[in-house]
Amino acid sequence: MIIRRAFFYWQFPASVILPAWVLVGWGLFSATGWQILGVIVGIMMLTVGMLAVAGVTSARKEVRAEKAVSWLDVALLAVLHALVIAVGFYSDFTALFSTLAVVALIALFWAGIVQLVIETRKRVRATLASFEAQAARAASIAGQPRSPRADGEYIVIETSDHGSTPPRY
Predict the structure, then answer these.
(1) Is 10 exposed, middle or buried (0-12, 13-18, 19+ CB in 10 A)?
(2) Residue 108 — φ and ψ, nearest 5°?
(3) Which residues are CB-contacts of 56 (< 8 A; sequence separation ≥ 6)?
(4) Which of 42, 77, 113, 151 is deepest in the core (most CB within 10 A)?
(5) Close Cβ partners of 131 (under 8 Å, ≥ 6 residues apart)
């Protein structure tokens, strides 16, 4: 549970810190100025993507209640973060790591969407089942004959004439 909670709290800061690491790392590991200018666009998209994933993950009620992501989220977040850190070292494998990071980000986004849909479906089904149970209870109560009240006189008004002629004025 500690690991899952750590990833829950880390995902929003990571969406800013890890892209910043890529910029710093490229500067430290001898990328040219033009390469750094080119990567800025990719860093902005990475930041938006990581924020979107964090938002989809946090949209799940189960995640918010436990303040912990699922184990699938932990695995995919760990892979994504490792790949982004590797991209920051600016090596011969940077293009491969960048591509794999994009794939991991897309996988993480869709895994979050699927988990959100499944969790929402369960909650909606449980709510509908409770409404049906309440309706069944109300119908069984309404179907039971009531005992007459003994609290005074009653006035009975008949509403149908059963074939009589309408009144004339």
Answers:
(1) middle
(2) -65, -40
(3) 109, 112, 113, 116
(4) 77
(5) none
Q: Is the dihedral of CA 80, 64, 49, 10 positive or negative?
A: negative
Q: Which residues contact residue 113 at a Cβ distance below 8 angstroms, ignoring those fewer than 6 apart?
A: 56
pLDDT tens, residue by residue, 27-47: 888 777 788 888 888 899 999
DSSP state of 164: P
pLDDT digits 0-9 by tens, 65-100 = 999 999 999 999 999 999 999 999 988 898 999 999
Q: What is the 3-state secondary structure (H, E, C) of 80-101?
A: HHHHHHHHHCCCCCHHHHHHHH
Contact 34, 90 (CB under 8 A): no
pLDDT at 6 over 80: yes
Q: What is the pTM of this model?
A: 0.73
